[in-house]
Amino acid sequence: MAALTVYTFKPDAEGDVFVADLSPFVVKLLAYLALSGTEFTVSTMGDKDRPTPPKGKTPFVRFPDGTLQGDSQMIIEELSRRTGTSLDATLSSEQQALSHLVRRTLEESTYWNLLIEKRWRRKSNFQSVTAPKFFDGALPCFLQPCFGFISGSYRTAIVKAYEGHGMGRHSEVQVTKLAVDDLRAIESSMSSGSFFSMSSGPFFHGKEKSSIDAVLYAFMGGIMFQKAAFPHESTDMEVNLQEFPKLMAHFRHMDGLLRAKLMEATHFSKKC
């Protein structure tokens, strides 16, 4: 199959933590493509001649036949349909069900309670970190004087969606607890004992990689990136990653597999 084009935001790094994109949904897709050996090219935010996203969201892709497709999960499913292959082909029905539950927990709960909360609702975080990182290089020169207004408008829309979702009506401490509860449940669902024992294997379902490995890698990377990039806050508004040794071991293994590939694919170079 010829290369497809993946339209993204942009990669970034903070300290030793690299994320192939500022959006975990983009990282999820890029990680899946790398794990499955799919040929692809990346178009980052600010590139010329980017088409309009079919669902108004990023990531989206252009398949070799010119078809545009949005939504990371629908892209993966369409890719599987077109190629007749899937990273989940060998999973049992129980494993597929668990993967679905973990993925939906991360995408529909943890994402809002941790990433949206810390990046967008907390205004000081938005002004000091989120706006400069997300919008740097995204606006043409003639719009730079309007940077504050444009970035603020995006924030207003996202916070409104957060409140409409329902999660945004809780306090910062409450949503942090909800996110920690999500991670504890996922940690408990992983193989018992030593995560890297020879009997279990280094992936979520054991010795064979599957799509949930891409999802976990994306969201844990986003959490680690936030802890490195954003100001430290009180303990009841932070995630203590030491509580999640299996998730951290999984991330380190996946990062070892994918970091170099994704740095090359996204043309990332760390600024001095």
Share of helical residues:
40-55%
Which CATH class? Answer: Mainly Alpha
What is the name of the CATH topology? Glutathione S-transferase Yfyf (Class Pi), Chain A, domain 2
Biggest sheet overview: 4 strands, mixed
Give the structure's gist in a few sentences.
The protein has 272 residues and is α+β, with helices and mostly antiparallel strands. It has helices spanning 24-36, 72-83, 93-121, 123-135, 147-165, 172-189, 211-229, 245-265, and strands at residues 4-7, 12-14, 17-19, 40-43, 60-62, 68-70.
What can you see in these coordinates?
- The protein is of the alpha+beta class and 272 residues long.
- The chain has a single domain (4-265), classed as Glutathione S-transferase Yfyf (Class Pi), Chain A, domain 2 (Up-down Bundle), CATH 1.20.1050.
- The protein is built from 8 helices and 6 strands.
- Strands 4-1-5-6 form a 4-stranded mixed sheet, covered by helices on one side. It has a two-stranded antiparallel sheet with strand order 2-3.
- Strand 5 and strand 6 form a beta hairpin.
- Helix 1 packs across helix 7 (211-229).
- The protein is globular.
- It starts with a strand and ends in a 7-residue tail after the last helix.
